[in-house]
């Protein structure tokens, strides 16, 4: 029994840890967006730096999380818990929207830093706030849906050997990513 709990807890701990890290970054993005709008010129640099930091986390770490879900977890669960199949297209489309919004926000922040006039910066600030706020709500909702549906199903529906197999696949995927980086 301990082995079963260990397998399930490792999988869920990893996934939930990544979600927790993302939620912390989302909170930092929220603070920086509010600061960018209301704190004035003296804090612009700090807020833009914070937004960039969050974007780097999303681009370097959280996109890998979504890819792992799409390439490993969702196909695995499709064959082991078929009733979840209808949820995966929605989650994948949210992943796509997340990637697009992250790229859009990154572009807007780059453009913002290059503008010299206050009018251009004001307009771009509003666009940054719109895209950033959308991204915040998209991710918070998405993470909640995954935790309340997919992760609960992993915990409740998969047998011990299935959880172990899923864990093996996730480890192999991670090893392949590390090997690809080294090449």
Fraction of residues in helix:
over 70%
N- to C-terminal distance: 40 Å
Structural class: mainly alpha
User: Which residues form runs of ≥5 with pLDDT under 50?
Assistant: none
CATH superfamily: nmb1532 protein domain like
Overall number of structural domains? 1
Describe the structure in your own words.
- By secondary structure, the chain is mostly helical.
- The chain has one domain: nmb1532 protein domain like (Four Helix Bundle (Hemerythrin (Met), subunit A), Up-down Bundle).
- Helix content is about 90%, strand content about 0%.
- The chain contains 5 helices and no strands.
- Helix 1 packs antiparallel against helix 2, helix 1 crosses helix 5 and helix 3 runs antiparallel to helix 4.
- The longest helix has about 40 residues.
- It starts with a helix and ends with a helix.
- The mean pLDDT is about 90.
């Amino acid at each position: 029994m301990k082995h079963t709990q260990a397998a399930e807890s490792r999988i869920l701990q990893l996934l939930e840890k990544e979600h927790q890290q993302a939620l912390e970054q989302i909170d930092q993005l929220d603070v920086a967006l509010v600061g960018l709008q209301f704190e004035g010129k003296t804090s612009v640099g700090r807020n833009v730096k914070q937004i960039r930091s969050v974007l780097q986390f999303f681009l370097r770490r959280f996109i890998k999380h979504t890819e792992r879900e799409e390439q490993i977890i969702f196909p695995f669960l499709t064959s082991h818990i078929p009733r979840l199949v209808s949820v995966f297209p929605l989650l994948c489309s949210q992943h796509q929207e997340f990637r697009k919004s992250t790229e859009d926000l990154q572009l807007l922040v780059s453009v913002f830093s290059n503008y010299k006039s206050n009018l251009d910066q004001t307009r771009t600030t509003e666009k940054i706030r719109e895209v950033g706020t959308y991204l915040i709500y998209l991710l918070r909702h998405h993470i909640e849906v995954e935790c309340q549906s997919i992760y609960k199903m992993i915990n409740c529906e998969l047998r011990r050997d299935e959880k172990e197999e899923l864990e093996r696949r996730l480890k192999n995927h991670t090893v392949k990513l590390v090997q690809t980086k080294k090449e």
